[in-house]
Input
Amino acid sequence: MADSPRTPQTLPEWELPNHQRGLVDDIIEEGQYEAAIEALFQLRSPQYKPSMQQLVFLALHPAETAPATSDARPVTETPRKTRFARIPSSIGPKAIVSAQNLLTSLISTNSPEALGRALPSYASDGSSKSSEEPLDSLLAKQSHCVKTAKHCWELLEEAFVYRNQVVVSPKGKSKMRHDFSIEEVILSESPSREPGVVADEAWPFLGWLVSLFEKDEVFEFQTEHVRYSALFLDQLPPPRGGSITRWDFAVILNIIMYCTEQKELRRQQMGYRLMKLVIALVVRFLVNMLTSSPQLINLTNTIYVEMSTLVNSVYRSLLAAWSDPRRIQDFLSDLGSATSVQRFRLYFCQKLLNDVSIPATSLHKGPRPQARVAPKPRGANSVAVPKDPSSSDSSITLSKSSKQAIPTCAEILACLDLPLPQFLTSPIDVKLILFARFQLVSDFAALKDHQTPELRLEWDRLIQAESLAGSLKRGFPPELGDEASVYLEMLQESLRVPL
Output
């Protein structure tokens, strides 16, 4: 078996030998889940792909679930009242915690590709049965719902593990049915059931997902020299028409917002880590497609996620969800200082400042600056990248680059010179505007070193001509209070601008 071309491992990962898989399956068949997980612990190896589907299913259960009592009767199909009863489970809390611990351990043992194959995604065919998981045991039949889900975020929803119910007939034969009645009863007392909200028992699994995507991001950087997660990309719905550029972030933004609203710091950090994974998908690359006609060479500049689309989606979500401007400010600050984050925050602050300004010619001369991304060359996004280049008569070469254009120096100064409106719409206030101006200049100054020499020279000329100093004074006037003065002093010290 050949190793994945994007997996920086010297040794290939093989399927677990049949006799070892049979040993684990026999233990599971007997309902000894703790012993089966312990066996999987012992069988861990970088050379072998672990069986993941049943392990994921176990890890999704609530750890406080009490095991079934010895006198629990099998559920039959005939009595109507059993339609609204939860089927007794032999999965104990220790087995659930052990499954979660094993998943965490496998992050450091196996490749992201080997672990991610158990996850449902838009890139996989959920209707097909997984070749790695036989449907012989009761657990295997129940865990089949993991593979048939639309995406991995569906696994985080309330009572997901109870969707595929396995019932026992009076003759002792098991039968699997896809029934939401039990789930409906479990959730009947819940105040809401929005897609994307994380169930209480699903937080450990969400933490594992984030760690898996982050490791895949590192692997991608080692092979493609661009930091983004291909596994995470497969969890975003692709648009129709063969394009690879994503634009629907509704589900993942719902999860991110829900994480950041939690009281527990660890859960909040999951939201910020997910947001960084989304931002990292703004990767521009060239598709060099050599068609069957030797004289026809099409060089296409395309992108996984457009910065403007992502900024607009996040901007609308934040303003709609939070009435406190400090929460928006904290969200942007807590994202960190990675280059991709700085670019995102730069465009976000530019959009915010443009949206709150007064487009009046008497107050602002010249065209109103607009948040923009690098222009596309002719033919951008005109070529769909085949999923399997070997199956077509074309040869494709991808040249990816994380180097992206940023707003011009003139656009940055224009944002500082935009007047404050007389009335501000909630949740935007003066303090948020001052923060956006400060972050705009700070992130631009940090990013300019990664841009063209012309842009750096233009910035230096603005400093020498005191044009930047004048814009900073107008952007942070003393009449806006002590906070404006503090921002001005911080920028003067970091940029070494004489005021």
Q: What stands out?
A: The longest helix spans residues 203-224.
